[in-house]
Amino acid sequence: MLLAEQRQQKICDYLLFEQAITIHRAAEICNTSEATARRDLDALAKRGLVQRTHGGAVPGSSPVTSAVNTEKLTRNVEAKERIAQRAAEMIRDGDRIFLDSGTTLLCLGLELHRFRRLTVITDNLDLAVQCPLEASSTMFLLGGIVLREFGVTEGPITEEIASRLTVDTAFIGADGIDGEGNIYCGSFAEVGIKQMMIRNSAQRVLVADHSKFGEKTLVKIAELPEFQTVITDSALDEGLRSSVSALVSEFIIV
Residue 193's closest CA among 127, 250, 145? Predict the structure, then answer.
């Protein structure tokens, strides 16, 4: 039986590709009763993730979940490249690093060819395929279930492998960062691996373009004080700059 968070994530994933969902369909994809599906839709509606309709729901005003990678690649491209270039300045030859899912981390992966003897660990399928490492470096793609729509691997196998690894620096992405410093991702399936690598890294760096700040998505994964460094771009709102800078040791705007 799925947990409430898992059921609600399935509903959000469905609404990423469909314009509406009925109570009957929500119950069907979650293998639960229609009464439970109705409560799940009501809970999502309270958070602004869906808008209730007669007999079902449609996407709400808040982001439902992580957007498909091909769509995300077209958003804030120049900002993501600047963030990636600045993050790359924190890497040294011989480092062991974790690169999270997301297009900003893909941009960072494209900067790694100039380093030697790196060990790069990731659950990011696009990065594993496209990252042009120098010959002395090694790419380690975490195994597990493939989520093609998000371009990642996930699940208990992925988390078991990650639990045994330690890295010098974990570069983590986010789908939302609210004004209180809570960090969110849009997919329940990715929570475990993100939290695991945050715990298993000596240095933690959050990379996120300005559009992620002031937003909440489905699942909280961490808080800003858990990171030594946050890197974002210059389009970030002045008010949000103040709240972020008060919570982290190093706040870099590019």
Answer: 145
Name the residue type at position 115. Answer: F
Give the dihedral of Cα atoms 131, 134, 136, 142; nearest 10 deg.
0
Q: Which domains does the chain have, with CATH numbers?
A: 4-59 (1.10.10.10), 69-253 (3.40.50.1360)
The answer to whether the CB of 87 falls within 8 A of the CB of 109 is no
pLDDT tier, 67 (very low <50, low <70, confident <90, very high otherwise): very low
Tokens standing for residue 92 = 């040294």
N- to C-terminal Cα distance for the chain? 46
Quick: pLDDT tens for 89-125. 999 999 999 999 888 998 999 899 999 999 999 998 8
Contacts of 100 (CB under 8 A, 6+ apart): 122, 123, 124, 170, 171, 172, 173, 194, 197
Name, in order, each residue with C-beta under 8 angstroms of 203's C-beta and a sequence gap of 6 or more. Answer: 90, 168, 169, 170, 228, 229
Sheet holding 219-223, edge to edge: 176-177, 182-185, 219-223
What does pTM read for this prediction? Answer: 0.73
